[in-house]
Write a structure and sequence with these properties.
two-stranded antiparallel sheet; 9 helices; alpha+beta
């Protein structure tokens, strides 16, 4: 009888494993169902935490999770693919992020077209393997080991009547595959450029940036016409053709258009001021300005390559030139010195 009582007591203890869904808290928890967050502000039991930390933390976690699940079941619920789903509200608590929220990936040209036309791709239920009647085995439809199975299937290619006997059909298949790969790669780069809003030239037609402007074309036409011995005097012109602006300075021998005389005194002053500024910015150096008489002494660089005439050297000597210094008794008589001996 004692054995039966002990077994019954053990069974009763095992049967009472499930706990109630109702949990009492002195201070109610603060919930944010949008982020599934529950904040517990109740005071911890220090004695139970020190004596049995593992069991105390497990029971505390279980109670808080139970309260969070009770709050979730109070939300509106719907069934999606044999599963009960609760619609969560917008989160109230802002969680800190170490990185920026990733932007949605832009759609490719085909994905945009499929979205507009309502085309849906059937990826679900697609098997990676399929049965092949020629090889009599399961082969992968994509991915790893697919290329080897294709080589096993295409070991023999039937020649057609129009085919050239000298051409290798295997090289044709290889080049066609490479062209498809390059086309796909070009399309991928176009999708990236379109997502980053980068302008690309069309195939076979360059953009306007590759063409020269009308000013460059007129300059080239004027230079070509004036490159003759007569500076384009006897060359025929196109209808409504005019010389390029500012080209007379670059082409030697071409007549420049005379400027109109100044209309008033202020314009004449501006022209004279610009003339004086251009003279002062040149290589000439003004040594002395005599404002009383209006005369200026100007020194010009008349020499070429640093060479001067003898007469210029004599006149250039000034009275303030320093005399050469002596050796100050540092001559060594024991050493041989070249030159004529004194008598």
């Amino acid at each position: 009888m004692d054995l039966v009582k002990s077994i019954l007591e053990d069974d009763q203890g095992k049967a009472d494993l499930s706990k109630s869904t109702k949990v009492h808290k002195d201070v109610e928890l603060d919930f944010d169902l949008g982020t599934l967050l529950a904040s517990d502000y109740n005071v911890l039991d220090e004695k139970a935490l020190k004596s049995k930390p593992d069991s105390y933390l497990k029971t505390l976690t279980r109670d808080n999770v139970q309260l969070l699940i009770n709050k979730i079941w109070e939300l509106p619920v719907e069934r999606v693919d044999e599963a009960i789903v609760a619609t969560l509200p917008k989160p109230e608590y802002v969680l800190p992020r170490s990185r920026v929220i990733p932007k949605p990936k832009p759609l490719t040209k085909w994905q945009q077209f499929a979205k507009e036309k309502g085309i849906q791709t059937k990826k679900k239920g697609r098997s990676k393997l399929k049965w092949d009647e020629e090889l009599k085995k399961w082969i992968p439809t994509y991915g790893y080991k697919r290329a080897k199975t294709q080589e096993q299937k295409e070991w023999l290619i039937e020649a057609k009547d129009n085919d050239n006997l000298t051409d290798d059909p295997f090289t044709k298949i290889k080049t066609a595959k490479q062209e498809r790969q390059s086309k796909n790669e070009l399309q991928r780069l176009r999708n990236i450029a379109r997502a980053k809003k980068i302008k690309l030239p069309r195939v076979g037609l360059p953009t306007r940036e590759h063409f020269s402007s009308s000013q460059q074309l007129s300059e080239a036409l004027t230079i070509a016409r004036t490159s003759t011995a007569s500076v384009g005097k006897f060359q025929s012109r196109l209808p409504k053709e005019k010389d390029a602006k500012g080209i007379a300075k670059e082409v030697s021998g071409m007549k420049r258009k005379r400027k109109a005389p100044p209309l008033n005194v202020s314009q004449e002053k501006r022209q004279n001021q610009s003339l004086v500024d251009s003279v002062l910015k040149s290589n000439t150096k003004i040594l002395r300005d005599d404002y009383s008489t209006g005369v200026a002494e100007i020194k010009q660089s008349t020499t070429r390559g640093g060479k001067k005439k003898k007469g210029a050297l004599k006149n250039s000597k000034s009275k303030t030139a320093k005399k050469p210094k002596a050796g100050k008794g540092k001559r060594d008589l024991h050493k041989k010195v070249g030159g004529r001996k004194r008598r």
